[in-house]
């Protein structure tokens, strides 16, 4: 077995040891088609107030700008589908936020994997990312054979659906790339488009980020949510899973085994009234390590008031 083959096998085995469910490899290179799509998306203002999406355009479409001399882009998927769901009448929270902040959990796994590579391979250059840098992770996941990008903009894995976090490791280590995922198994299905409460999912796999419930409940920092959205949030208080919940491929989703993603008990059991009476101190204590802290207490209370106000 040659050195490149040996190192490729090492990466795949290390990914499993570090708790990732899937691992795929692509050759680093400029993303020409994505550059055109991203430019068009930004020019149409679909990023809303997410101005960070406009930054570092060159880095988003060229991994060698992030890691000079990059040879390989390694993509990892980590399942976050929960073992328990919220009460039916509770203010709804996106499943990815049920447990500990995924950035912390996955960074630990990426650092562990990099340590293994440094020990087994030697001096290599590599940077791991999880939703924290200008990386087009879904494109790299598709290029590394892990699935296809659905009409809702999510990566869909044929065996397990779309409730996955995507992590990326860009390295100068030469590896054998996997075959890109060539087919799109969405077919004529439009369940996600039809179900979107705010009609944010457009044809041709375009999602208007500035119309998504996740945008309004997490990204938007304004004191008020626009009135024209009143009555359209379907009780979503933080994020939105509607397009994933209706996707037929998610019938294959299985509960994750990650201790860090174990649902916070209060998140599953708090009623609307209990949320409304929560103090800021209690919020900070209960959700200290939760993704909900991104919206802060003030944002959660704003969202709660909005979804409980009759238009």
From TrEMBL:
TRNA binds at residues 221, 298. [4Fe-4S] cluster 2 binds at residues 196, 212, 240, 243. It catalyses: epoxyqueuosine(34) in tRNA + AH2 = queuosine(34) in tRNA + A + H2O. Its cofactor is [4Fe-4S] cluster; cob(II)alamin. Pathway: tRNA modification; tRNA-queuosine biosynthesis. Cob(II)alamin binds at residues 60, 131, 152, 155, 166, 214, 240-241. It comes from the Bacteria. Its EC number is 1.17.99.6. Catalyzes the conversion of epoxyqueuosine (oQ) to queuosine (Q), which is a hypermodified base found in the wobble positions of tRNA(Asp), tRNA(Asn), tRNA(His) and tRNA(Tyr). Monomer. This is Epoxyqueuosine reductase. It comes from Terrimonas rubra.
């Amino acid at each position: 077995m040659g050195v490149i083959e040996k190192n490729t096998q090492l990466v795949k085995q290390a990914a499993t040891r570090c708790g990732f469910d899937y691992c795929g490899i692509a050759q680093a290179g400029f993303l020409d088609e994505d550059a055109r799509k991203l430019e068009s998306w930004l020019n149409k203002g679909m990023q809303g107030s997410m101005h960070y999406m406009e930054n570092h355009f060159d880095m988003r479409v060229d991994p060698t700008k992030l890691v000079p001399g990059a040879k390989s882009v390694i993509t990892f998927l980590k399942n976050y589908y929960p073992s328990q769901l919220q009460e039916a009448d509770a203010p709804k929270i996106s499943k990815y936020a049920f447990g500990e902040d995924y950035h912390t959990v996955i960074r630990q796994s990426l650092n562990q994997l990099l340590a293994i590579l440094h020990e087994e391979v030697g001096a290599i250059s590599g940077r791991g990312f999880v939703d924290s840098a200008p990386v087009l992770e879904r494109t790299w996941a598709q290029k590394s054979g892990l699935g296809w990008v659905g009409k809702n903009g999510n990566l869909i894995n044929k065996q397990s659906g779309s409730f996955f976090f995507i992590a990326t490791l860009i390295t100068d280590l030469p590896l054998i790339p996997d075959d890109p995922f060539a087919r799109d198994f969405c077919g004529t299905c439009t369940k996600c488009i039809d179900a979107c409460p705010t009609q944010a999912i457009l044809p041709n796999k375009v999602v208007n980020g500035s119309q998504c419930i996740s945008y309004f409940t997490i990204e938007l920092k304004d004191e008020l949510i626009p009135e024209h959205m009143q009555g359209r949030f379907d009780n979503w208080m933080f994020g939105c899973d509607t397009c994933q919940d209706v996707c037929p491929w998610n019938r294959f989703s299985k509960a994750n085994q990650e201790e860090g993603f174990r649902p916070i008990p209060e998140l599953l059991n708090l009623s609307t009234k209990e949320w409304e009476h929560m103090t800021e101190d209690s919020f900070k204590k209960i959700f200290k390590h939760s993704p909900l802290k991104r919206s802060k207490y003030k944002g959660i209370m704003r969202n709660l008031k909005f979804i409980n106000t009759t238009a």
